[in-house]
Amino acid sequence: MVISKSHSLVLIYSLLLSFALLSSAACVHGRKGEQDPYEEYDQCQRRCEWEVRGERQQEQCEQRCERQLEERLQSQHRRRGLNPEDPQRRYEECQQWCEQQAGRREQPQCQQKCQGRFQQEKQAQRQLQQCQERCERQEQGQREQQQCQSKCQQQVVEQQRQLQQCQERCERQEQEGQPKWQQCQSKCQQEHEQRRQQQEQEGYNPHRHTMTRREEEEEEPEQEEEQQQQQRNNPYFFPYRRSFQSRFREEEGRFNILQRFAHKSPLLKLIDNYRLATFEVNPQTFVIPHHCDSHALYVVTNGKGVITFVNDENKIAINVETGTVLKAHAGATVYMVNHDNREKLNIAVLAIPVNTPGKFEEFFPAGNRDPQSFIQVFSSRVLEAVFNSPREQIERIFRPREQQGQKSQQGIFRRAEAQQIRSLTQQATSPGEKGTESLAFNLMRQSPIYSNQNGRFFEAKPENFKQLQDFFVSVAAFQINKESIFVPHFNTKATFLVLVTEGSANVEMACPHLSRQSQSVEQEQEQQEEERSGEFKQVRAKLSAGDVFVVPAAHPVTYFTSQNQNFKAIAFGLNGPTTRRVFVAGKNNLVRQMDSEAKEISFGIPSKLIDEVFNKPQESHFMSFSPQQRQPREEEMRGNNNRLSSILEFARMF
């Protein structure tokens, strides 16, 4: 449930006031001797706690403290001429002050402080937005929503306050002539980042987001509650509503990014450098140019559009549709447009960071305030020299003033005019045409490697597609029809990230790691793994559109649908460019290929009985999954219960 817009604006406005106060400290022209409004707020809160009796009276007292804090902040900003809604303008004022007031030697350090404060403010705004999005995804009432959003504000403001206090200590050390100012500032930033990450991990705790309503529903069937609990404790299951955050959430589109894999479970630390993200672009919308410090694979999961790659020598525009796969090396500048009038353009992105493991950032050459162009960071002297243009002319490009009666668009998703869209798309070529061979192909136009009336499976591997060879990643897409099953199988080398694009299905997987999860100390876990193996736990989840499921290498897995839903998904295969898929059921399965003696010794029963089970299926890969097939007849079970116990033990993992 989304809380009222007015309440949300109050929270954001109050928070931005505090951000503006912090950023004003970067330009050293604040008033000295002025008491910190937060110190006054703390004193006021302590007086409420010590001097006021009664819970209701204390609450009223604390509310007065909050109103006083807001009034003090507003008063300070009016005196300082700051607009709390405009961090970019504060940054520009800070830079101008450095150029006008600071000495030539102090200018670089002054501008560095301006940039640092600006980045802190933008990061804090993003952190607040992400926290409030998690509040919106909670299944709870409006009062709890407001409390959650208020807590988001308090947490972010407190973190910024601690960072400011640390940085002020560094400033005092600098004024006293103590060396290592840079190291002091870096330590402040590191401590702040550690606090932020710790809070982020806590925010991802599924119990914080789903248990409130669950606990109130006492009449919920016990079996369903047990299944919900298993899904919450499932380290391989990433439900869309709890696991994605919006890095850019705007009226015309979203860019969502999945939480880091190792934050979910240490079992996934081997793939933690990979990040999964999604674009949702509204009709008639343009995504402004940007590059990233990561390689990327784009897979179009819905809609049509044009994606353009640009460098300092040329550009190439490519028509994309459902199934199109494109690669972009780190540093490649990309922009895109959804030229459709009705349908959204949805794109899945696998990012492989090249700077900081598991982290990547976007860089925008064009922009003014939101987002900021990285070109604006350079000093006016540098820009005047490299563009051979006066400062006023440059500022008209990067700091445009709003035309009378018109507002300049902000954000990375921007509405485009029909004529602009025609110009952007008229020279686009399709995958496979000249110039696109090394960049793009359409996965859905390839021949499926498995196909029958129950489903289809498409796959592109690096060994066959040169577009994938640089990244050692395979791409797959599969569809399971109603009342069908993708039979149990495992991948020999690759770990697969499965992103659901349409419909729903159940997934079951055999996992040896969770069967030993009772040990809490990693060293004891490793010792136990060495001493004991061959035990499995069933991992299962109900998958819906937007959810992600991780299938580690060698883990047998199966997917099946109900009578009401088809199921579609894409998948990225990681760390196994030459992986093979081995089926343990269906017409072609690994047990069927074993020697009779090997089967008899392993199962402990005559091979004839084993063959009656494993040789019986008449279909491969995808099979019908009707209710009659899921419920074996009682008479068959009675006659074979004892003799087939070992076979059933083998099948229990599914």
From TrEMBL:
UniProt entry tagged with the keyword Signal: yes
Region (Disordered): 195-236
Transmembrane residue ranges: none
Signal peptide interval: 1-25
UniProt feature coiled coil, ranges: 121-176
Residue ranges annotated for the Cupin type-1 domain, each copy included: 255-395, 441-611
Gene Ontology molecular function terms on file: nutrient reservoir activity
Source organism (scientific name): Corchorus olitorius
Compositional bias annotation for Acidic residues: 216-227
Keyword field: Coiled coil, Seed storage protein, Signal, Storage protein
Protein name: Cupin 1
PROSITE patterns: PROKAR_LIPOPROTEIN (PS51257)
Lineage: Eukaryota, Viridiplantae, Streptophyta, Embryophyta, Tracheophyta
UniProt similarity note: Belongs to the 7S seed storage protein family.
